């Protein structure tokens, strides 16, 4: 029985994904849930006192759910310089932006920028940063998030000098003459810049808690405006959980957040008796996050065959022994683990660990995740299917990187990358991932990318054989991501008993020109039946 008077929402089309039968004309919402779907006359007869919200010719879809992004990281980045290609088009513009940021930064404090893309803007080094900002420590992070460039002042404060040895799983890049060039690769960067990864020694200081609260509120508003109602933050530590909790207390958590806890902090979770599923519908622990290799855009992923035109096969950032121990421990505790693995060689090592853990301690129904799962082949797919493993590939990388991917990996290999068609045809659970700030956060961009496999800047086709339909892409961004976070019973559909999280679009993406999906207007976003964004 429903005690609260529902609200009826009607639109020209509703893509409810509720199962068999025709799509509904309207839905009734009460107490944050969808309580009924059907025609407007059916629902008004059943709920005669219910107000009707009519969206006219718009389309209602289940709320978009990003299965792998980085809210906490973005809350920090958004406080600093945006050095993305959208913001700076040339190296001169980038260095000018860094110089201007330094002028506004008190003496001795860090100057930071993010989302720099060497493929589109060009490359720079420590010497270039020293020339324009000699007095402040500077860190510029690459869009892939797996390497960055610092100046000499930063190297000094981080305790890195010409005699420093590369950290395990990382690299201090050097000029041909052997001198440090300021590029910190993989663990060399993460150890000093990501609070969620445990590290002893000096690091880049995080912003104040008050500033981060301002940052996370801004990020959530921006992502609500793109139609997002749920996100899995794929790398959090205790401070991030505290930040999200404070945002909720302040009324700024207008998006549901699942969290993958960094393996570096797993001991604390075990001590507290906290595991997968701990929390509620707004803030919940999904599982544990571990790393194994590098990045696609950063060209550091672990491959079985070298990058095109090189003899370089990428980096393994965590030893195989540590990977096996981490997977075995989390699995034995009955918790889900998501392992970052981009290259095919890395994915095989992860599958080895999953298979061993399941064989030595069978846990039926405990399904682990492969984060990114970028370069696959038939053997990998068959092994994943046997394990019922979950794939979380990039949604928007074909659109964002375009033809550069063909250059870096070769067209035969890009036909096996972000392989949504192959993975879906195999019957695997496939979730959506923007991996923002590494890729576009807008779900409609991700949908267009999966449907067209075409670069948005250069028009290049990247693995066209992996195209999927718009209906399939929507399910990846809704049902797939819900399944990946253990929420399949309450998210991803607009059906009785499901959370009333939905997005109102100016056009039906299932009927739109595939090359125009990214341009569809987000008219409104609702979480629990409450509007959190209106255009």
Strand ordering within the main sheet:
7-14-15-16-17-18-19-20
CATH 2nd-level architecture of the largest domain: Alpha-Beta Barrel
Structural class, from helix and strand content? alpha/beta
Could you estimate the helical fraction of the residues in percent? Answer: 25-40%
CATH H level, superfamily name of the largest domain? Metal-dependent hydrolases
- Beta-strand content: 15-25%
- How many DSSP helices? 19
The first-level CATH class name of the largest domain: Alpha Beta
The biggest beta sheet reads: 8 strands, parallel
Quickly count the domains: 2
For the record, give the distance between the C-alpha atoms at the N and C termini, rounded to a whole number.
34 Å
Task: Report the uncertain regions.
Answer: none
Question: Radius of gyration over alpha carbons?
Answer: 23 Å
Q: Mean pLDDT, nearest integer?
A: 95
What gross morphology would you assign? globular
At CATH level 3, the topology of the largest domain is: TIM Barrel
Number of DSSP E strands: 23
Description:
- It is built from 19 helices and 23 strands.
- With 535 residues, the protein is an alpha/beta fold.
- Strands 7-14-15-16-17-18-19-20 form an eight-stranded parallel β-sheet, sandwiched between helices. A six-stranded mixed β-sheet has the order 8-9-10-11-13-12. A five-stranded mixed β-sheet has the order 2-6-21-22-23, covered by helices on one side.
- Helix 2 (71-77) packs across helix 8 (209-225), helix 12 (344-360) runs parallel beside helix 13 and helix 18 packs across helix 19 (470-484).
- It starts with 6 loop residues before the first strand and ends with a strand.
- Residues 52-533 form the Amidohydrolase domain.
- This is Amidohydrolase 3 domain-containing protein.
- Pfam families: Amidohydro_3.
């Amino acid at each position: 029985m429903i005690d609260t008077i529902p609200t009826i929402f009607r639109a020209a089309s509703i893509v409810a994904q509720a199962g068999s039968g025709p799509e509904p004309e309207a839905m009734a919402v009460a107490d944050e849930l969808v309580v009924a779907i059907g025609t407007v006359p059916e629902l008004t007869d059943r709920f005669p006192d219910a107000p009707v919200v009519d969206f006219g010719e718009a389309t209602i879809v289940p709320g978009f759910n990003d299965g792998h992004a980085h809210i906490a990281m973005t809350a920090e980045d958004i406080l600093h310089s945006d050095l993305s290609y959208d913001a700076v088009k040339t190296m001169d513009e980038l260095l000018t932006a860094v110089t201007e940021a330094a002028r506004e930064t008190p003496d001795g404090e860090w100057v930071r920028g993010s989302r720099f893309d060497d493929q589109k803007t060009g490359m720079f080094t420590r010497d270039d940063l020293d020339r324009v900002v000699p007095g402040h420590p500077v860190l510029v992070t690459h869009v892939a998030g797996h390497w960055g460039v610092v100046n000499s002042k930063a190297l000094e404060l981080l305790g890195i000098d010409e005699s420093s040895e590369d950290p395990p799983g990382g690299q201090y890049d050097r000029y041909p003459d052997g001198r440090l060039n300021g590029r910190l690769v993989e663990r060399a960067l993460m150890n000093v810049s990501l609070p969620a990864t445990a590290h002893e020694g000096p690091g880049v200081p995080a912003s104040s808690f008050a500033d981060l609260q301002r940052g996370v509120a801004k990020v959530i508003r921006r992502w609500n405006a793109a139609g997002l109602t749920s996100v899995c933050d794929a790398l959090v530590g205790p401070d991030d959980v505290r930040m999200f909790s404070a945002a909720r207390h302040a009324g700024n958590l207008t998006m549901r957040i699942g969290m993958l806890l960094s393996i570096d902090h797993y001991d604390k979770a075990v001590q507290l008796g906290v595991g997968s599923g701990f929390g509620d519908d707004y803030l919940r622990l999904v599982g544990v996050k571990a790393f194994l290799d590098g990045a696609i855009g950063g060209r550091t992923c672990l491959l079985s065959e070298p990058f095109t035109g090189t003899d370089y096969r990428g980096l393994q950032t965590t030893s195989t022994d540590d990977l096996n121990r981490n997977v075995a421990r989390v699995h034995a505790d009955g918790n889900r683990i998501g392992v970052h693995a981009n290259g095919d060689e890395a994915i095989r090592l992860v599958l080895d660990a999953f298979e061993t853990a399941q064989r030595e301690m069978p846990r039926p129904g405990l399904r682990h995740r492969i984060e990114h799962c970028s370069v696959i082949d038939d053997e990998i797919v068959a092994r994943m299917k046997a394990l019922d493993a979950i794939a979380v590939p990039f949604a928007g990388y074909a659109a964002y990187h375009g033809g550069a991917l063909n250059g870096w990996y070769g067209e035969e290999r890009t036909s096996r990358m972000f392989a949504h068609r192959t993975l879906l045809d195999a019957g695997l659970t496939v979730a959506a991932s923007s991996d923002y700030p590494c890729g576009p956060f807008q779900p409609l961009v991700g949908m267009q990318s999966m449907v067209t496999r075409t670069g948005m800047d250069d028009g290049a086709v990247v693995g066209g054989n992996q195209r999927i339909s718009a209906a399939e892409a929507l399910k990846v961004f809704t049902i797939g991501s819900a399944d990946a976070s253990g929420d399949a019973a309450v998210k991803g559909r607009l059906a009785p008993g499901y959370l009333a999280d939905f997005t109102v679009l100016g056009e039906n993406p299932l009927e739109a020109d595939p090359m125009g999906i990214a341009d569809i207007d987000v008219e409104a976003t609702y979480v629990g039946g409450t509007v959190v964004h209106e255009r």
